[in-house]
Write a structure and sequence with these properties.
The protein has one domain (38-83, 140-410): Beta Barrel (Porin), CATH 2.40.160. It contains three helices and 19 strands. The chain has helices spanning 6-14, 54-60, 155-159, and strands at 22-26, 29-48, 75-80, 87-96, 99-107, 132-138, 142-150, 193-200, 207-214, 228-229, 232-240, 245-257, 262-276, 279-289, 309-321, 324-335, 356-370, 375-390, 398-410. It starts with 5 loop residues before the first helix and ends with a strand.
Length: 411
């Protein structure tokens, strides 16, 4: 079960510090307020938009082009949020009749005043309300969670990504989603904040098991539109190694049906975070059918409902010297075309299959300095390459390089 301080505490724990929530008592209730604010200057050099084309890629739902909607050779410079938006989290908790109960609500604003990338020039995009849920249970019963919160599948990958404190991929897409992408779509699937009813069993030694039902995900618009969507299921197992780290594995399953076709989302992931003194190592692998490569289900099936296979991995190493952490990670996500994605005697791509992703590769080199226990200064260099396997012309890779500098504050 994720900490009561939620994402903020998870980030801080991963950095070897503690959360700094503001707490007080109101009658029998304990009230906590915690939050985060960040901003980064990013400069992205778009070396090539690639033969898939930004419009084709977005329309197909397979991935966001590394250069956003910029053309060949164009650069973008932004002052924006990193992988995290700003957020403030309110939690109230108490113990009644032997049950630990709590309620959590978050507000998650962003800095974007995008000039039209996706918002059509409508001005500031203020973000959303990512977390609104209640919990109840105790040590012998376990804990139930009802509401909207971070998902189980993909949770550990993003919480252990060093770019969670900074930027990672997607800096050229300022305003599109009010955050950058970190390693999303470039090594792991985005866990998302999803409506759910989940249960975490009492710990069995070092082993913790969680599972539950989730609001079904639409996925690719061409598949499942105006049709039924079966309940989604996710499960996660975590094995603690104490101060040495942890191991995890997770599953996801959901069916989607229309009058014309049926498509499933099935996925598996496994990973580890290990600590050897000042050295930290992280590895995560995922594989699935209908899963997509970035957001769950997005681009996971072709226009006729046949699932595309996808897989990917993230490898990361960090080393801490005093209050400064140095890190490097490398991620790859791939998507396999189906037989329906190519038509014609010479294998000419179908019009709705042009720009289908083949592979995303990303490397991040970062420096993260804790100026105070609550304030971290960060700098990253990110290089990204996107390959296409179904194009209307000879394949050309999309490439970009980004430099990001800024700060993140927790309270």
């Amino acid at each position: 079960m994720i900490s009561k301080k939620l994402v903020a505490a998870s980030i801080l724990a991963a950095m070897g510090t503690s959360a700094h929530a503001i707490g007080f008592k109101a009658g029998e209730w304990e009230m906590d307020i915690s939050g985060s604010v960040n901003a980064y200057y990013t400069s992205t050099s778009c070396d090539n938009i690639g033969s898939g084309g930004a419009g084709a890629v977005v329309a197909n739902g397979t991935a966001l082009n590394v250069c956003g909607l910029a053309g060949t050779g164009q650069d973008t410079n932004n002052v924006q949020n990193g992988l995290l938006p700003g957020f403030i989290v309110f939690t109230a908790k108490t113990k009644q009749q032997g049950y630990d109960i709590s309620g959590t609500i978050s507000i998650d604003p962003g800095t974007s005043v995008d000039d039209g990338t996706f918002s059509g020039g409508r001005g500031q995009s203020v973000g959303d309300n990512r977390r609104v849920f209640l919990t109840f249970g105790n040590e012998s019963l376990g804990t139930f969670k009802f509401g909207r919160d971070i998902g189980l599948f993909g949770q550990n990958a993003i919480l252990n990504d060093m770019s969670l404190l900074a930027v990672g991929g997607g800096a050229g897409l300022n305003g599109a989603i009010n955050t950058t992408l970190g390693g999303i779509g470039q090594g792991y699937i985005y866990t998302q904040f999803q409506p759910q009813m989940t249960y975490t069993a009492p710990a069995m030694g070092n082993l913790t098991l969680s599972g539950g039902v989730f609001q079904p995900i639409q996925g690719t618009a061409a598949v499942g539109a105006n049709g039924s969507r079966d309940t989604g299921f996710q499960g996660m197992a975590t094995y603690s190694l104490g101060t040495s780290g942890k191991l995890w594995a997770a599953l996801i399953n959901q069916s989607r049906d229309t009058a014309a076709n049926q498509s499933d989302i099935n996925g598996f992931e496994a990973g580890t975070a290990l600590n050897f003194g000042n050295l930290g190592l992280v590895g995560n692998y995922f594989s699935g059918e209908g899963l997509g490569t970035g957001v769950i289900g997005l681009g996971g099936a072709d226009a006729l409902g046949q699932e595309r296979d996808s897989q990917g991995y993230l490898l990361q190493a960090t080393y801490k010297v005093g209050n400064t952490k140095f890190g490097i990670n490398y991620g790859v996500s791939t998507l396999d075309a189906t037989s329906n994605d190519t038509v014609g005697s010479f294998g000419t791509p179908a019009a709705n299959a042009a720009g289908i992703l083949d592979e995303n590769q990303q490397m991040v080199v970062g420096v993260y300095h804790s100026l105070t226990p609550s304030l971290t200064l960060a700098g990253e260099y990110i290089t990204n390459k996107m390959k296409f396997q179904r194009t209307l012309a000879a394949p050309v890779d999309a490439e970009s390089d980004t430099i990001a500098v800024g700060a993140i504050l927790f309270f």
